[in-house]
Design a protein that fits this description.
The complex is a heterodimer. Helices cover 79% and strands 0% of the residues of chain A. By secondary structure, chain A is mainly α. Chain B contains 13 helices and no strands. The chains are: A mainly alpha, B mainly alpha.
Chain lengths: 243, 258
């Protein structure tokens, strides 16, 4: 069926592996940044200030209503012009790499989704958590870090898993801006060998396997973040509750 | 420092082309939504079937077409299926021979896989007691499904359906890779002609934004119409905003899937 020699196949596999590594790097960088900014934005937009609320609403509406692909194109094609506008003329010669454009675009888009999740989760926390922290004179940094955010993460986890898997499935879009990622490597190999079926199926399975692994991880994380809540239920067998 | 330079003249000139692109995007949204929904019902029933092999097959379908990125599905259908000799000779080549047909197939299967999960989730959310009561009244299983389970399932699943439709519309932006001139492709070609990175892409973004928000408004109206019988409860909730019931958080959090 196939006209590939074993040596060829090994070569292509190495190329795909390198591509997969780039995809993974892109995903890790984007998700980390989006998560950090999302949590930050989620906390900042708790402010009642009208301006903050208006800015948040416009930002969220735009980036939740526009395809990520367009945002990637915008940051890739228009990135250097935007940098020049922000930093002045001396940076006009900065070229934006596809990787940088992709990370920027995904960060901007998914920070909005994560901020929305965080806002929802904070809104669903009992008010007593904030009041208790204030009554105990816990400083704000410790209150957020040790009291509020751990509970927020527990509430936001299902949504975060959703965002995670959506983002993973959107990372191939950066290959359209010229990033040599897994999908680009698969396309080149498919074109060179005239065996598109094998390469694209293999690529699809890489993504499916990665989501399967991350769902396993999410389940473990869920159990771990839930441990405070299960303590009441499992008080008779404390060792069983430890995850 | 004059912000983003938008060339109004160029924007005005490219309006007809952008509208053509929007038309293509709308078609590429509407048809797969229809076919995907039609496919989702049999596959959803198979997924919930008691026959293990049937449920397994349906689950494999869902796992594959949900887990693989849309771009790869598109490549797979467009480049991969042409490799199969039998298909090239067969009657389906009319469908798979054109980029448009390939895009419709890939998008429909992807949407169907997501809809299976939406359908399953909302059908499982229907309280069992209502179904049992209907069966006790001697209503046939088919009628119970059509008149009791589905109307409730639509109400439970509406938010999830809306999210899926919205993210699906945004997902169609990639069909330009198989040479279809949708909204994104039009914006891209204008960029390539003028090297103006902002005007065409921002215009296309505005079109997408308007399209997505029209769909959102449509869903909101539909949801309000479906829930018109408890409109008073909603009004009462709005007057006295308090902590919702404990079930609220989960459904609220599901609203923001991309």
């Amino acid at each position: 069926m196939t006209n590939l020699s074993l040596a060829d196949l090994a070569g292509y596999m190495r190329q795909l592996g390198e591509g997969a590594l780039i995809t993974l790097e892109l995903f890790a960088a984007s998700f980390t940044l989006a998560f950090a900014f999302g949590v930050l934005i989620g906390i900042v937009t708790l402010s009642r200030s009208r301006i903050v609320q208006a800015v948040w609403r416009v930002y969220a509406s735009i980036f939740m209503g526009v395809p990520s692909l367009l945002v990637i194109f915008l940051t890739f094609y228009g990135g250097s012009a935007m940098l020049a506008a922000v930093f002045g003329e001396f940076s006009a010669r900065i070229d934006v790499s596809p990787f940088g454009a992709g990370v920027t675009a995904f960060t901007v888009v998914y920070a909005a989704y994560i901020a929305e999740l965080v806002r929802g989760a904070i809104g669903n926390l009992p008010k007593g958590q904030f009041e208790g922290a204030r009554a105990l004179a816990i400083p704000p940094v410790i209150m957020w870090g040790k009291v509020i955010l751990p509970q927020v993460m527990r509430l936001a986890l299902p949504g975060l898993v959703n965002v995670w898997s959506f983002m993973l499935k959107e990372t191939p879009l950066v290959s359209l801006a010229g990033l040599q990622d897994l999908v680009a490597a698969a396309k080149i190999s498919a074109g060179a060998t005239k065996e598109p079926f094998i390469f694209f199926i293999a690529t699809a399975f890489v993504f499916i396997a990665f989501s399967a692994v991350s769902f396993k991880l999410a389940t473990w994380l869920e159990i771990r973040l839930d441990r405070g809540h299960r303590r009441e239920a499992a008080v008779r067998s404390p060792s069983g509750a430890a995850a | 420092m004059n912000g983003l330079p938008i060339d109004l003249h160029l924007a005005w000139e490219s309006l007809p082309a952008l509208f053509d692109g929007l038309k293509m995007t709308a078609i590429l949204t509407a048809l797969p939504l229809l076919f995907g929904l039609a496919l989702a019902f049999p596959i959803g029933f198979a997924r919930m079937s008691d026959r293990r092999w049937l449920a397994f097959l349906a689950e494999a379908f869902v796992t594959f077409f949900r887990g693989a990125p849309l771009l790869i599905l598109l490549y797979l259908v467009y480049y991969g299926l042409g490799q199969i000799e039998a298909l090239r000779k067969g009657p389906f080549w009319i469908l798979f021979g054109s980029p448009f047909g390939c895009a419709i197939v890939a998008l429909s299967f992807n949407h169907a896989a997501y809809m299976v999960e939406v359908l399953r989730g909302s059908l499982l959310a229907v309280p069992h007691g209502i179904v049992e009561a209907s069966e006790a009244l001697g209503i046939s299983r088919r009628n119970v499904f059509i008149w009791v389970k589905m109307p409730l399932a639509i109400r439970y699943g509406l938010k999830a359906y809306q999210n899926e439709v919205v993210s699906f519309i945004k997902g169609t932006a990639i069909v330009s890779v198989v040479t279809i001139t949708d909204l994104t492709a039009v914006a891209n070609s204008i960029f390539e002609q003028t090297y103006d990175p902002f005007t065409p892409i921002l215009c296309a973004a505005a079109f997408y934004w308007a399209f997505v928000n029209l769909v959102r408004i449509g869903f909101d109206l539909w949801g309000r119409w479906l829930n018109r019988h408890n409109a008073e409860d909603v009004a009462a909730d709005a007057v006295a905003p308090g902590r919702g019931p404990s079930l609220r958080p989960a459904s609220d959090l599901k609203q923001v899937t991309p």
